[in-house]
Amino acid sequence: MVHRVSGLGLAIFLPLHFLALGLAIHDGAGLDSFLRWSDQPLVKLAEGGLVFLLTVHLLGGLRVLVIENFDWRDGQKQLATVAAAVSAIVAFIFLVRVF
Amino acid sequence: MNVQLYVWQRLTAAVMAPLVLLHIAVIFYATRQDLTAADILSRTRGSIAWASYYGLFVAAVSIHAAIGVRNILAEWSPLKNRRADLTGAVFGLALAVLGCRAIAAVVLP
Description:
The structure holds 2 protein chains of 2 kinds. By secondary structure, chain A is mainly alpha-helical.
């Protein structure tokens, strides 16, 4: 469920991410203006959420690949908890750096 | 989900795992100070390495996300499989187009 919801969140974010990067198509001014807008605390907080979603989806995906391709069935729930904990730590470190 | 879609989703996941790890590292590196367009573009413009990296990333994520969205719609929404297939495909295509445009914007000199 966490893997699916994080994937859905990333799928909603991705077109916006690509549109933002596309602002640099003529010169850097459009992208710079967007980057200044993204300096707002709420936007930075949302970026922290995205880092969390990306990390938790990556770790959840690795867990799925390991479970499906290797003979490893023990501790799956613990692996999911570790994935969420590591993602929260990565997102927290990101927020500390950007604020 | 049929076998082909399953294989493509797992294959693109395996391709993307190292790409996402590098992307997270780049996010942390890039945000060590205030992010500016000049910072980003000085790294990426004219770089074949970044163009290849982002090209592979966009191709893999477009396929992966299209299948994921298709599966969610098929299982969680009242849409029939055919409509879910079509919506997933359109979403993936839109991602690929927007992604290629974004790569062109940051990589072309």
